[in-house]
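Hi support team,

I submitted a single chain yesterday and got back a structure, but I'm not sure I'm reading the token output correctly. Could someone confirm the output below corresponds to the sequence I sent? I've pasted both exactly as they appear in my results page.

Thanks,
R.
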Amino acid sequence: MSFTPPADDLIQQAFPQIQNLALLALGGFKAVYRASIANKTEAFKLIQIPSAVPNNPDSEAFRIEMVGRVRREVDALGNCLGPEIVKLGSMPLTETKIAGLDYVAYSEEFLDGTDLGKLLASGIAKPPEAELRLLFATLLRAIREMWRHSYIHRDIKPLNVIKLNDATRQFVLLDLGIAFSVQETALTAFPTGRDPVATYRYLAPELMNPQFRETIDYRCDLYTAAMTVFEYGAQQHPIAENRDDRLKTISRALHQQPKQLASLRPDLSPEFCQTIDQMLKKKPALRPANLNLLINRMGQPI
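Hi R., thanks for writing in. Yes, this is the structure output for that exact sequence:
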């Protein structure tokens, strides 16, 4: 689902500190812009909160859930300060009305790079093993930092990893919009009657368990991190097919064994391929979970 964002002049009336808006991405109820804020280029995020339907408690519950998710994302970004995770910008979370509709907005640092999804779509050459090891180690550090604050990302995928032209900070994880906190109250309205909030092409199998909130931990992020590395390295998804619908994608995640990385990248070392393959086990208990050991295995500093 997508929405039509307000005209730029209306946004700037609501946020007079913002200049030079340029739309970067649009999806769901969210628009992301490159903008100048206090003479600094930042990423400005504007999220529409749907209007409540009179006498419809479900619509009000959905509104509360949406605001709660944005607040959780901002809180998580404020707590998780590792360089592997995008940082908050100078504009705090702000609620406003534009043309009679409710919005929340905030800013993040502007990262001058390209996400892995766009790189894959552009038909880039398959990256060397050293780059894949760095990517996986970066995601492992991000997972470790989030778990230190009791967060699980739940949406690691190529579109949410940006590659920078910076040797000291080559990859950064974005978008904690559906992050889960094991210490906070669940945000999903009527969770027993809904599928999990997720990108189904990058769904950890355990999230389809109706009781996943009772047992989920960072190993679900290990699965999607490995899936991201696999797809970036092999330029093929390990499970899903482009023609699949949502139900077929979920069925594959639950029942189909993933491809073996070595079958698509025989030039990569057996040890690296085996590590990625192990992370794609259906059962979380079968995925190696010592984050420091895994980072070290990638030849990266802990």
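A quick pointer for reading it: Strands lie at 18-27, 30-37, 40-49, 94-98, 101-109, 113-115, 151-152, 161-164, 171-173, 180-181. Let us know if anything else looks off.

Best,
Support desk
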